[in-house]
Amino acid sequence: MARLINRIRFGRGLVLLICGIYFAVPMAASLWFSIDDNKGGTTFRAYTELLNAPGFTDSLVLSLELAAVTVVVLLLLLVPAVLAARLGAPRLRPVIEVMCSMPLVVPVVALTTGIIGVLRWGPDYLQDTPLFQTIVAIQDPKFPIVLIIAYVLMALPFAYRAIDAGLRGVDVVTLVEAARNCGAGWLRAVFTVVLPNLRSALLNAAVLTVALVLGEFTTASILGFTPFSVWINSNGKSDGQMSVAVSMLSLLIVWLVLLLMSAVGRGRKAARS
Amino acid sequence: MTTATAPATGKAPAAGGATVEFRSLRRSFGATTALDGLDLTVNPGELLALLGPSGCGKTTALRILAGFEQHDSGEVLVDGQDITTIPAHKRDAGMVFQSYSLFPHLTALDNVAFGLRMRGTGKAERRKRAHELLDLVGLPHRAEHYPHQMSGGQQQRIALARALALQPRVLLLDEPLSALDAKVRLQLREEIRRLQQELGITTLFVTHDQEEALSMADRVAVLRAGKLEQCATPSELYGRPATAFVAEFVGTMSRIPCTRTSDGVEVLGRRHAVDGELPADGDLDVLVRPENVTLAPSATGPALVVTASFLGAVSRLTVRLDDGTEVKADLPTEAAAALPAGSRADLTLPERPVLVDRRVA
Questions:
Q1: Cα–Cα distance between B216 and B193 in angstroms, integer?
Q2: CA distance B33 to B38
Q3: What is the tens place of the pLDDT at every residue in B35-91?
Q4: Cα–Cα distance for residue pair B214/B221, rounded to 1 Å
Q5: Which domains does chain B have, with CATH numbers?
Q6: Which of A97, A104, A209, B33 shows the smallest number of beta carbons within 10 Å?
Q7: Contact B341, B307 (CB under 8 A)
Q8: Tens digits of per-residue pLDDT, A160-215?
Q9: B45 conformational bin, left if phi > 0, alpha if psi -120 to 50, beta if neither
Q10: Cα–Cα distance measured from residue B313 to residue B317, given in angstroms and rounded to the nearest whole number
């Protein structure tokens, strides 16, 4: 028995080591490439120039804004729908699950092509109507709302899974009934009892959404907008070393954001316990 | 924890609670009828147990009273007022649920104070009141513990304190002990009964455990398929059941074939008087409780001892008659020692059998 346990431990360690090498080697190579001065020494030129490169700050801020708004919109759409289905119409659960999973089977390129089709539609006689002006407004390069719509769709399957997993761990129906029995109305029961117990699930959904938005390239690029991922790509074409430096910085920023979000969630949980 | 002996059944309840009335209450879920014209009144300060098998409608009745279900027709009155249109959060009925329903993100103290917070009571006042209630349920030292840090019994006691925090007119208990182990269940049911009597609060207690119902309640209402079979004190329910269903659901019963006579029935060659009316037609059985059956060792007796189960002070013997009928009899354990499995005995029935019913095919 002890030998078997040792073998399992060794196997786990080996798998962990291989995975570690698989992820670490390319990153170490990239990091080395970005600081190599071709003379046997190191230089941080690429990183220092990065901060002054045109478009760096704007694209990064745009990406973070898009991520934040996408998270808010997604949760505002998804949480009430999932809770309503669980509390009032359990038979709708499979319908919501299928709808939320649909984006998984639609390729991003196909989705983007569909969006382009919608955005291009609009006969001349509609030019002065609010509908036409809305279609124009959502394509504002300073804050392209159309990207948020696309990102919400793309993140639906992941966010739904995270929230659904959280709901499975909580007896929402009984908790809401207990809260109502204590004098809380429907909304108050949801805000004071259900949502605090879904904090981890909501955080997971937000983390997955932020990761998706910060890394998404295809839709933004095809639609002609310049969030951080697109800026990295276009910048890398002129200066290879800076491109890799930006990629490394991008990874670092994404990790920091996700770690920060996780830490906030864990911190509150730990304080509670 | 302070425990108290459960009071003798049938004791006059304390005054002060509300009167609850179900009038011709009906509720269906698709093709299933959960309540089929339930008529029942719960007196002020009384602990009434709703007893019955799964699906008999007892939980549905409780949930309708709590406001979590709507009835199809009929009325639910509290102190004469129809509460049908009052939403659940304004019904003034504290409830303890079957599953652990404490809010996982709140401490025991905050759980108990939750209702007061919803009502807008100031922080100092609600903490004081919550501490008092934690004292009342014997858990003052658990105030800062979270639900996952407490045992099932402790969680249900906190849930009881939470239900009492708003000083509700009616206390609803939906099988609150069913998830607990036997020892804790026994302690907690005494605790609940003690609190209920101290506070004089009208209480509806849903259970499928007859022992729980008989030992705790002032009156027990037995439900079957959404209808009330009988509502009586535990002793009356046990001693004088109105129907064969009640007789067999509450306690243990043996059925023995009998024949109709001019003034009663004849069982095993002896005539017995019968309380109430005999079924108009069909073959008949008498229903007798094990403790009312007497066995005496006799080599030529009609009863063959099949099994003997030791229950402590008494032993339960199962005997088989010549026609294959099996009868249960409770004997003092010392007396039962004289009747080992395989021996024969004379069997004597009480003068008045509990009930006579149509024979079940």
A1: 6
A2: 12
A3: 999 999 999 999 999 999 988 999 999 999 999 999 999 999 999 999 999 999 999
A4: 10
A5: 20-242 (3.40.50.300), 252-358 (2.40.50.100)
A6: A104
A7: yes
A8: 999 999 998 899 999 999 999 999 999 999 999 999 999 889 988 998 999 899 88
A9: left
A10: 13
- Tokens 């509390």 belong to residue: A87
Kindly list the distances between the CA atom of residue A155 and the CA atoms of A81, A109, A161, A193, B71, in Å, as whole numbers in the listed order: 15, 15, 10, 26, 42
B17: pLDDT confidence band, cut at 50, 70 and 90?
confident
Q: Compute the radius of gyration of chain A from its Cα atoms.
A: 23
Sequence-distant (6+) residues with CB within 8 A of B108 are B102, B134, B139, B142, B143, B144, B145, B146, B147, B150, B158
Is the pTM of the predicted complex or chain greater than 0.90?
no
DSSP A91: G
Q: What is the 3-state secondary structure (H, E, C) of A191-234?
A: HHHHHHHCHHHHHHHHHHHHHHHHHCCHHHHHHCCCCHHHHHHH
Element (H, E) at B279: none
Strands of the sheet with B202-207, listed across from one edge: B93-96, B170-174, B202-207, B47-51, B219-224, B227-232
Cα–Cα distances in angstroms (integers) from residue B47 to residues A173, B162, B165, B191, B196, in the given order = 27, 19, 19, 13, 8
Specify which residues B203 forms β-bridges with.
B47, B171
Q: Say yes or no: A196 contacts chain B, CB-CB below 8 A.
A: yes
Question: Which chain B residues are within 8 Å of A189, Cβ to Cβ?
Answer: 89
Among the ranges A130-144, B55-69, B259-273, which has the highest mean pLDDT value?
B55-69
Report CB contact under 8 Å: A193, B101: no
CB–CB of B58/B38 below 8 Å? no
Q: Which two tokens stand for residue B180?
A: 């607990």
In terms of CATH architecture, what is A44-272?
A: Orthogonal Bundle (1.10)
Mutate to test the interface with B, among A170, A181, A186, A187 (most CBs of B within 10 A): A181
Can you read off the two tokens belonging to residue A187?
């909304």
Quick check: ipTM above 0.90? no
- Residue B14 DSSP symbol: P
Name the nearest CA neighbour of B138 among B116, B160, B123, B117.
B160
- Taking the domains of chain A in order of start, what are their residue ranges? 1-39, 44-272
The CA-atom distances, in angstroms, between B36 and each of B55, B61, B153, B226, B266 are 12, 11, 34, 5, 37
Which residues of chain B have a Cβ shorter than 8 Å from any chain A Cβ? 66-68, 87-90, 93-95, 97, 99, 101-105, 114-115, 118-119, 146, 159, 162-163, 165-166
Integer Rg of chain B from CA: 24
3-class SS of residue B177: coil
**Identity of residue A62:** L
Nearest by CB to residue A181, choosing from B88, B105, B146, is: B88
Rounded Cα gap, residues A73 and A143, in angstroms:
15
Decide if A197 and B104 are in contact by the 8 Å CB cutoff.
yes
Which among A178, A192, A196 is the nearest to B97, CB-wise?
A: A178
